Amino acid sequence: MLQAVTKAASMVLRYRFEERPPIDQVLKRRSLQGWSKLRRFYLSVWRPELVSQGHLLRVGECHRCGHCCRILFRCPFLKGNNECRIYGQRFEQCRNFPIEPRDIELLDGQCGFSFIPIDQIKSR
Ligand code: SF4
Ligand code: SF4
Fold first, then answer.
1. Which of 68, 75, 82, 110 to mutate to test the pocket of ligand 1 (most atoms within 8 A of CB)?
2. Domain presence at residue 60
3. Facing residues of 115 across strands?
4. What is the CA angle 18-74-102, rounded to 5?
5. Which among 86, 98, 80 has a CA at the least distance from the CA of 39?
6. 5-9, 98-102, 120-124: which is most confident
7. Does residue 104 contact residue 114 with C-beta atoms inside 8 Å?
8. What are 54-99's pLDDT values in tens digits?
């Protein structure tokens, strides 16, 4: 019994003091995610020409993994199997994801799309 309690306590302590990322990193990531949502919303609604420009460098396809539907918070329309409940009528910023390379950097690259580096375009 004592052994189990000690093990549980050490697990909690390890989680609290070792395994969690520092609070400043968590806050920075969260605020970046929040700004990126606002940026995509703004671009999708008011600057569609910039969205089209961004998409010119985009390659790949959507694997419907749902990672972009969990940025900052889990979208209430996301079903357990990663399907969107309103897929046919989903928001413009959902259809447009990702618009720029930094959008997928936020997902640590976990997206079926990628972007051709600008230097490659210049050297063509
Ligand atoms: S993260 Fe990329 S691949 Fe996954 S659902 Fe979103 S757009 Fe599609
Ligand atoms: S509306 Fe659909 S596509 Fe858009 S974030 Fe939610 S689940 Fe994903």
1. 68
2. yes
3. 58
4. 75
5. 98
6. 98-102
7. yes
8. 999 999 999 999 999 999 999 999 998 899 999 999 999 999 999 9
Q: What residue ranges line ligand 2, CB within 6 angstroms? A: 69, 75, 77-78, 84, 86, 90-91, 94
- Ligand 2 centre distance from Cα of residue 19 (Å): 30
Cβ(38)–Cβ(74) below 8 Å? no
Domain around 33: 24-122
Domain count, the chain: 1
Assigned domain for 16 exists: no
Of all ligands present, the nearest one to the C-alpha of 84 is 2
For the CA of 40, the nearest ligand = 2
Tokens representing 75? 């979208």
Structural domain contains residue 9: no
